[in-house]
Design a protein that fits this description.
- This protein has a single domain, classed as 3-Layer(aba) Sandwich (Rossmann fold), CATH 3.40.50.150.
- 40% of the residues lie in helices and 22% in strands.
- The chain is built from seven helices and seven strands; from the N terminus they run αααββαββαβααββ.
- Keywords: Acetylation, Membrane, Transmembrane, Transmembrane helix.
- InterPro entries: Methyltransf_11, SAM-dependent_MTases_sf, Thiol_S-MT.
């Protein structure tokens, strides 16, 4: 099976040779950072349509984590185009972090379309290094379709725990690896290297639930589901929240 996967990866690599060449020359990452926000803007419209009920369910208890200030202080890591904004409760104070500065103009548009929120600021940073956010300063951290692409899941979860106040919550919704005995997992393995380059560091085969189980949360509510998405490769999902 490993040989078959290698041969198929090689064939796909030949078909996508220009992309691999640009990556070898150090040019692809810059190109990807520029075009990816445009792709994600279109993708998130479709994703929100198909996942709206699941997102509403996931974020339904956000008000339970309002801190002493009386307003929910929320940090979204890997905010992208602001696709989650419409699911947040009115009056929520939102800070956004993303390593790609090209998302900012799309984020501003989403802020304008979601006047029920109090937008605080946009920070260009990775989730593994959120030094601009003070210790214990937020009630909730949200991370959707992000753990698939970070360099270190362990490090980002450490940072999440650092910035959350005691009793705060971390909300997640992530596509993950399929069951290892399935054809879906086979094709995830075949396509993973090319997918990684095409979609700005996204991995198809991450078992992100394991990192969440290892993190030092006092409570973890995690569920697996087959998301109602058109593309079978990314249907395996996990979602839920964890309390510090």
């Amino acid at each position: 099976m490993a040989l078959i996967i290698f041969i198929l990866r090689l064939a796909i690599g030949i078909l996508l040779f220009p992309m691999y060449l640009l990556n070898f020359l150090g040019l692809w990452n810059q190109i990807c950072k520029m075009w990816f926000p445009y792709f994600l803007r279109r993708f998130t419209v479709m994703y929100n349509e198909q996942m709206a009920s699941k997102k509403r369910e996931l974020f339904s208890n956000l008000p339970e984590f309002v801190g002493p200030s009386g307003k929910l202080s929320l940090l979204e890591v890997g905010c992208g185009t602001g696709a989650n904004f419409k699911f947040y409760p009115a009056g929520c104070r939102v800070t956004c972090i993303d390593p790609n500065p090209n998302f900012e103009k799309f984020l501003i548009k989403s802020v304008a379309e979601n006047r029920h929120l109090q937008f605080e600021r946009f920070v260009v940073a990775t989730g593994e290094n959120m030094q601009q956010v003070a210790d214990g300063s937020v009630d909730v951290v949200v991370c959707t379709l992000v753990l698939c692409s970070v360099q270190s899941q362990e490090r980002i979860l450490q940072e999440v725990c650092r910035v959350l106040r005691p009793g705060g919550a971390f909300y997640f919704l992530e596509h993950v690896a399929a069951e290892s005995s399935t054809w879906n997992y086979f094709w995830q393995q075949v396509l993973d290297p090319s997918w990684y380059l095409l979609f700005d560091g996204c991995n198809l085969t991450r078992e992100s639930w394991k990192a969440l189980e290892r993190a030092r949360f006092s409570k973890l509510e995690l569920q697996h589901l087959q998301a109602p998405l058109s593309l079978e490769l990314v249907r395996p999902h996990i979602y839920g929240y964890a309390v510090k």
